[in-house]
Amino acid sequence: MDRWAWPTTVKVIVALMVAGMVAGSVLFLVQVYELTGPFPAETGVFVDDISAGNEYISARYGLDFAQGVLYALGFASLALLGQLLPRLVGSGDSRGPMLRGTLMLAGVLGVVAQLLIIGAEPVATSTQYCDCGLLQEELMSRLMAFNIVQGIVNWVSNGAIIAAAVGILIVARPGVRAGMPVGWAYLGYLTALASVVVVVLWSFSQDTFPFNLWSLVVLAAILLPAWAIWLAVRSDDLRLGDQEVDLLQGS
To answer: Which residues have C-beta within 8 Å of that of residue 91, sequence separation ≥ 6?
Structure first.
């Protein structure tokens, strides 16, 4: 099999990342806005409400699973892209290892977050209960355990988003020197800023809906894919390694 050139590899990885992030975001919106059917109305009876909610979530677990797998694909592809981008920095530049490390960290944390949630959800929302007369206690313990997992997932995801933002900031100027337009660097700065906004909003998610939701969708389905696609489109014309010319003037 022929070896893949650097631009070809970048294009393949970017295609996988964009597909995962955009498709995952679409399924995320489908779930949040209950487009497959409304969540059961509350009755005020704890056991009945939680049991009905578990049935609803279990019936739609396939969508949650697909969403998690797609986002995991996007994060894994970002980690792989991080192993290629140091070619834009050049050998001997300390930003190369930093870039590789931050995007690898972002990818690993992102994948772990998705695996945690798709692994915990079917257990916490299973409709099979212990025949021991302690249904209320079992439902409460499952609910609390799942809330703990969701809290962990939120902060692991925040870590992934911040790590990705740092990597994007690191590669901005070297990318321009390698031949990317200045506008691509500014798009990277905007993406990094949006990442901080997402983390802040999701840290107070109970008070920021729907802004937290749409900030995440804009980041994952628009800004990050646009940044990556622009890189892939220009990848054939970039100067790799130490062949860097400063294009910040007159680009």
So the answer is: 241, 242
Span 169-202, pLDDT tens digits: 999 999 999 999 999 999 999 999 999 999 999 8
pTM for this predicted structure: 0.90
Structure tokens belonging to residue 92: 């001997």
- Report CA torsion sign: 28, 29, 33, 35: negative
| Whether residue 210 has a cis bond before it, omega within 30° of 0 | yes
DSSP string, 49-114: HHHHHHHHHHHTHHHHHHHHHHHHHHHHHHHHHHHHTHHHH-TT-THHHHHHHHHHHHHHHHHHHH
Q: Which of 244, 251, 85 is nearest to 170 (CA)?
A: 85
Residue 62's Cβ-count burial label (10 Å; 0-12, 13-18, 19+) is exposed
